[in-house]
Amino acid sequence: MIIDIRDINESESLVIRGSLNEDIWQLEDSDLLKPSGGLNYDAEASILGEDLLVRGDFSSKFTFQCTHCLELFEKTINLDNHSVLTAIEGNSTIDLTNALREDIILALPNFLKCDQGDEKNEPCPASGKFSEGLNAGNSGEESTNDAPSKQWEALDQFNID
C-alpha cells in the first residue's frame, strides 16, 4: 500500500479505499494457515508535522486448520480503528505494506477451533472428545487417567548421564 505524500493537503486528510491483492504475507507452504484474499482497507491519511498518519479499518481473510478436528475454515482478521505512524523523511511516497502485514500477522489468533470461523455456527465436531485430566495444569487433583503405556515407561527409565 503505497501512499503519495504529494496527494495530501496539509490541512485535510486523503481518503484511501481499496484492496491489495498481491501476496504480501510471506508465509511458508508448511504454515498451518494460508491467505484467502487480499488486504482490504478503508482509511484516511494525513500529515502531522514530519510524519504520515494513516488511520482506518484493515482486514484480510485467512484459511486456518482447526486445532481439534483438523477441518479447514476461513476467518477474517480485522484491525478496526487501527493507526500507522511513520516518518516522511523527505520521501514523496511511503510504502506501508510491511507495517500493515506485520500488524495483521501479529493479530492472528493461536489455536483456533473451526467454530470460531466466519461461517461456522455449529460446535466443532471434536468438542468434548478431549479429556480435561490430560491438561498440564492439574491443580493438585488426583488424575483419573490410565497408567502410561509401556513406551512411556521405557522413556521414564532412560538415563542419559
Key phrases:
2 helices, elongated, 161 residues, mainly beta, 35% strand
Question: How would you characterize the overall build of this protein?
Answer:
With 161 residues, this protein is mainly beta. It has one domain (2-120). The chain is 12% helix and 35% strand. The protein contains 2 helices and 7 strands. It has helices at 97-107, 150-157; strands at residues 2-4, 14-20, 34-35, 39-48, 51-65, 72-87, 93-95. Strands 2, 3, 4, 5 and 6 form a 5-stranded antiparallel beta sheet that branches. Strands 1-7 form a two-stranded antiparallel ribbon. A hairpin with a 6-residue loop joins strand 5 and strand 6 (72-87). The longest helix is centred in the middle third of the chain and has 11 residues, at 97-107. The chain starts with a strand and ends with a helix.
Number of domains: 1
Strand content: 25-35%
Please summarize the sheet with the most strands.
5 strands, antiparallel
Q: Tell me roughly what share of residues is in helical segments.
A: 10-25%
The class by helix and strand makeup works out as mainly beta
Could you list the spans in which at least 5 consecutive residues all have pLDDT below 50?
Answer: none
Structure, briefly:
With 161 residues, the protein is mainly beta.
Could you outline the blueprint of secondary structure elements for this entry?
Elements (H helix, E strand, L loop, with lengths): L1 E3 L9 E7 L13 E2 L3 E10 L2 E15 L6 E16 L5 E3 L1 H11 L42 H8 L4
Antiparallel strand pairs: 1-7, 2-4, 3-5, 4-5, 5-6
